[in-house]
Write a structure and sequence with these properties.
Helix content is 68%, strand content 0%.
């Protein structure tokens, strides 16, 4: 059993660490580490490479959190906590990728994918929180921090967070990863407070009056 756990966690870290945003940018002739926010995540790809490439990066980053978590939940049901540990490890791999000197993205998409695999109802509500905050503000960072804060609290309540995985250790893990996501956004939070955070418009940017 110990070997199984080690293999799953190592594979999760290596898969989570795949820098899809950086790869997509390079394929389009852009090093996302040198433009925009200099982050390798989907938001910076969206802003500096193009909308469709940003959505592709978002999808791939979510899948690298979802696929290992869901597969582990299906293949190793006898180790109830392992699927969550695998998902968290995927998110950590994204934020501290071994392929880029342990400098990675902010973990929002990968963490969301992990939670879709574990608790789709909770993640569905969290996604609505993100959409509402983003739609009202056009700040992806605000939506991401708000959603992370929400899920870090909601996971402790059985009505939303149970889904067969509700215990103290697992709630602590989700809360810690949510807190780390907010911490990774500390520069964005500073810009939000200062009023100079960049907005993202999914559709056409409204004309200034």
């Amino acid at each position: 059993m110990t070997t199984t756990i080690i293999v799953w966690l190592l594979a999760a870290y290596l898969i989570g660490g795949i820098p899809f945003g950086f790869i997509i940018g390079k394929c389009r002739g852009v090093d996302v580490r040198t433009v925009g926010s200099k982050n390798i995540g989907a938001t910076n790809v969206f802003r500096t490479v193009g909308k469709k490439w940003g959505f592709l990066a978002l999808f791939l980053d979510m899948m690298k959190g979802f696929a290992p978590t869901y597969l582990c939940k299906c293949l190793c049901p006898e180790i109830a906590w392992l699927a969550l540990a695998v998902g968290v490890t995927c998110a950590v791999g994204h934020m501290l990728t071994p392929y880029m000197k342990f400098k990675g993205g902010k973990g929002v998409a990968t963490g969301a994918g992990m939670l879709f695999g574990l608790a789709p109802a909770l993640m569905g509500v969290t996604f609505l929180v993100f959409v509402a905050l983003f739609a009202c503000s056009n700040y992806i960072s605000l939506g991401s921090c708000g959603a992370a804060t929400f899920i870090g609290i909601a996971i402790w309540f059985p009505i939303l967070g149970n889904a067969g995985y509700h215990n103290v250790a697992q709630c602590v893990l989700v809360t810690l990863i949510a807190a780390f996501i907010v911490y990774k956004h500390r520069a964005n939070i500073g810009r939000l407070i200062a009023g100079n955070e960049n907005k993202i418009y999914i559709f056409k940017k409204p004309e200034a009056k």
